[in-house]
């Protein structure tokens, strides 16, 4: 084989190696773009070194070819065809290299987008961490407040139970005292007791109506005075008649009191008169 043939064989081998290097670089880049970048840089360095070596060999071959021009003329036509094929392969390799370069740029752009997104996620995570810390503090405070409230509720429940127990004791004691009061024929209603012990206010009114019992004696007397005048159940009032037939008619004890009228039972009857409508009622003669 001539020197030119060897040269082209070497060129073909180198180009094949270069193509294989590109293919390996693409395969590696799909797994790890950083490793791909480092490998590609290393491959480029190796290719550059091989190119430099090849350039040196080419210069040597060129010198040798100049010396052997006469011998190479008869093989020029065959070399032309071979050279055309190599040119076509070289054009294909350039296209493949350009495609790989574009793919690498696209991948780098995607990596940049991924890095930006990761940074955004990291910033968002840091912000959320601050929010979570604040929420955790608030939750801890709420738990503390709830415990304090539960302690207060427990204390109030204990106090409530004590008050309920004390109330039961007071009710039992009140029932016992009322029983003692009743057994001694005393009034158990505080209002009646107050009315019996406190004199009624100074009032004057009229008898509205008087009812009689089965024997025809006056029993109940309705008067024109009531609670608005300061009267209460149990108060005692005097009944008297004015005019030409003026006389004292007796005393009544109020058994029912409304706002503007009341009803009393006759408790002290005079011997010389019967109470009737129009007679006077007063708390003090």
How would you concisely characterize the structure shown here?
The protein has helices at residues 3-31, 33-67, 69-72, 76-183, 190-197; strands spanning 204-212, 218-223, 236-241, 247-257, 262-269, 280-282.
Q: How does this structure look, described?
A:
The chain is α+β, with helices and mostly antiparallel strands. The chain folds into 2 domains: 3-126, no CATH class; 200-282, Elongation Factor Tu (Ef-tu), domain 3, CATH 2.40.30. The chain is built from 5 helices and 6 strands. It has helices at residues 3-31, 33-67, 69-72, 76-183, 190-197, and strands spanning 204-212, 218-223, 236-241, 247-257, 262-269, 280-282. Strands 1-2-5-4-3-6 form a 6-stranded antiparallel β-barrel. Helix 1 packs antiparallel against helix 2 and helix 1 runs parallel beside helix 4. The longest helix is centred in the middle third of the chain and has 108 residues, at 76-183.
């Amino acid at each position: 084989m001539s020197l030119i043939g060897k040269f082209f064989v070497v060129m073909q081998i180198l180009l094949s190696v270069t193509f294989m290097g590109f293919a390996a670089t693409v395969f590696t880049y799909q797994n790890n773009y950083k490793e791909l970048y480092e490998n590609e840089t290393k491959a480029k360095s190796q290719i550059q070194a091989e190119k430099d070596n090849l350039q040196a060999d080419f210069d040597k071959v060129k010198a040798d070819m100049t010396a052997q021009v006469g011998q190479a003329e008869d093989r020029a036509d065959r070399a032309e065809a071979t050279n055309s094929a190599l040119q076509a392969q070289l054009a294909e390799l350039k296209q493949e290299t350009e495609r790989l370069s574009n793919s690498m740029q696209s991948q780098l752009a995607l990596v940049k987008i991924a890095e930006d997104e990761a940074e955004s996620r990291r910033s968002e995570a840091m912000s959320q961490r601050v929010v979570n810390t604040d929420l955790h503090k608030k939750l801890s405070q709420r738990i503390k407040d709830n415990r304090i409230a539960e302690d207060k509720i427990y204390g109030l429940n204990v106090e409530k139970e004590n008050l309920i127990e004390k109330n039961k004791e007071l009710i039992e004691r009140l029932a016992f005292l009322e029983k003692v009061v009743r057994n001694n024929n005393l009034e158990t209603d505080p209002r009646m007791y107050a009315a019996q012990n406190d004199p009624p206010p100074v009032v004057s009114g009229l008898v509205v109506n008087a009812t009689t019992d089965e024997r025809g004696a006056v029993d109940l007397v309705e008067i024109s005075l009531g609670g608005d005048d300061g009267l209460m159940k149990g108060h005692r009032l005097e009944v008297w008649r004015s005019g030409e037939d003026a006389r004292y008619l007796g005393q009544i004890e109020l058994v029912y009191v409304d706002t503007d009228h009341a009803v009393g039972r006759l408790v002290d009857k005079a011997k010389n008169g019967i109470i009737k409508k129009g007679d006077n009622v007063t708390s003090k003669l």
